[in-house]
Design brief:
This protein is of the alpha/beta class. Helix content is 40%, strand content 19%. It has a single domain (7-163, 204-228), classed as Carbamate kinase, CATH 3.40.1160. The strands form two sheets. It has a nine-stranded mixed beta sheet with strand order 4-3-5-2-1-6-10-11-9, sandwiched between helices. Strands 7-8 form a two-stranded antiparallel ribbon. The protein is globular and about 50 Å long.
Length: 240
């Protein structure tokens, strides 16, 4: 049985890398993620990653405390580079070739993001980690994921979270909450469901890039999604 997708973009939150910590990087969690990505890579699936920086610094939260928003966002972008380098190292230790590409130039640390070069890396079987957001303030890493997915022609965005999909309410607070296996883009926008921010969601809708929201921490889930198993929640244009 062959994978459903040939090229995917995996979106990881910075908080996912923190594990149970309030701050920083849990290297065990990073190793677990690297092993999962290795499993997908072994299937021949071209894999790009976008990682947030919320485990280190959140520009929006800082701006609410009086910090200059643009400066805070640039600091957040630099935090994503720290996370990307941790993922790159973990992937390389599993034997997978990985490249970190940044939207803010820092040649001593990583390659600059150039779309054609990123695609070439993927075609050569390297995992590409796309860091530093879009290089612009006021854009989230969700928007980065949507933009990069469109640019590199990824077939799907895999949004890895700590829950196993989208629910009618917070399942931790409401025991009657039920999981929604499929949703349309407009339904997510109209109901104000927090999947990705509206800019990212609209970009996905306009370019028909489906999003799968799933539980990252369940071992083997990335492979299951790539193979076409219906776990988590699928957000796409095919649902009215």
């Amino acid at each position: 049985m062959s994978p459903k997708y040939k090229r995917v973009l995996l979106k990881l939150s910075g908080e996912a890398l923190a594990g149970s910590r309030d701050y920083g990087i849990d290297l065990e969690i990073v190793s677990v993620i690297a092993e999962q990505v290795k499993g997908v890579h072994a299937l021949g699936v071209q894999t790009a990653l976008v990682v947030g920086g919320g485990n280190i610094f959140r520009g929006l939260a800082a701006s609410e405390g009086g910090f200059d928003r643009a400066t805070g966002d640039y600091m957040g972008m630099l935090a994503t580079v720290i996370n990307a380098l941790a993922l790159q190292d973990a992937l390389e230790r599993t034997g997978i070739a990985a490249r970190t590409m940044t939207a803010i130039q820092m040649p001593q640390v990583a390659e600059p993001y150039i779309r054609r070069r990123a695609v070439r890396h993927l075609e050569k079987g390297r995992v590409v980690i796309l860091a530093a957001g879009t290089g612009n303030p006021y854009f989230t890493t969700d928007t980065t994921a949507a933009l990069r997915a469109v640019e590199i022609e990824a077939e799907v965005i895999l949004k890895a979270t700590k829950v196993d999909g989208i629910y009618t309410a917070d399942p931790k607070r409401d025991p009657t909450a039920t999981k929604l296996p499929r949703l349309g883009y407009l339904e997510v926008l109209n109901r104000g469901i927090e999947v990705m921010d509206n800019t990212a969601l609209t970009l996905c809708m306009d370019n028909d890039v489906p999003i799968v929201v799933f539980d990252l921490l369940h071992k083997g889930n990335i492979e299951r999604v790539v193979m076409g198993e219906e776990i988590g929640t699928l957000v796409s244009s095919g649902v009215k």
